Amino acid sequence: MSGIASPGSKMPRSILFMCGMNAIRSPMAEALAKAALPKGTYVASAGVRQGERDPFVDVVLDEIGLSIGRHQPRTLEELEDDYFDVIVTLAPEAHHKALELTRSMAVDVVYWPTPDPTVATGTRDQIVGAYRAVRDHLAGLIASRIAGRE
């Protein structure tokens, strides 16, 4: 499947991004998608487990003029809505959980393997570089697979 909103299909009205702890990848994807998609598209993020906010996310989003605001990591159980047109999973753990939860639902679950930048070591610049790589990876996927821009 090349895109979520492929030619001839409708743009999803609601998208959930899921990762392990809703601390890095999924909130970053949420912010990027909100900036790239039409205003009427509902975008949310959640994690399989409870996580802690990561300050490097703020650093790399601020570089491109975006913010996650006062976002605090939340689990699936803490979501206000539980129906989405598409669930985009960014980590294996989240993908397995999403497939398990949606077995009896008409929801598309799409897996975008995304590296965990917290495994990066080295200088602050090298670590921030790993977060930038994740941001750019997600921005490219959102542009090409959801927003329909190549």
How is this structure best described in words?
- The protein is an alpha/beta fold and 150 residues long.
- It has a single domain (14-146), classed as Response regulator (Rossmann fold).
- It is 35% helix and 13% strand.
- The chain has 4 helices and 4 strands; from the N terminus they run βαβαβαβα.
- The protein has helices at 25-36, 55-62, 92-101, 124-146; strands spanning 14-19, 42-47, 86-89, 108-111.
- The protein has a 4-stranded parallel beta sheet, with helices on both faces.
- Helix 1 (25-36) crosses helix 4.
CATH superfamily: Response regulator
Low-confidence stretches: none
Mean pLDDT, nearest integer?
A: 91
Rg calc: 15 Å
Identify the CATH class: Alpha Beta
Derived from helix and strand composition plus strand pairing, the structural class reads alpha/beta
Q: What name does the CATH topology carry? A: Rossmann fold
Do you know the CATH architecture?
3-Layer(aba) Sandwich
Largest sheet: 4 strands, parallel
- Tell me the total number of β-strands: 4
The spatial strand order of the largest sheet comes to 2-1-3-4
The total count of helices amounts to 4
Helix content: 25-40%
What proportion of the residues form beta strands (DSSP E)? 5-15%
Domain unit count: 1
- Give the N-terminus to C-terminus distance in angstroms: 15 Å
What is the overall silhouette? globular
H-E string: EHEHEHEH
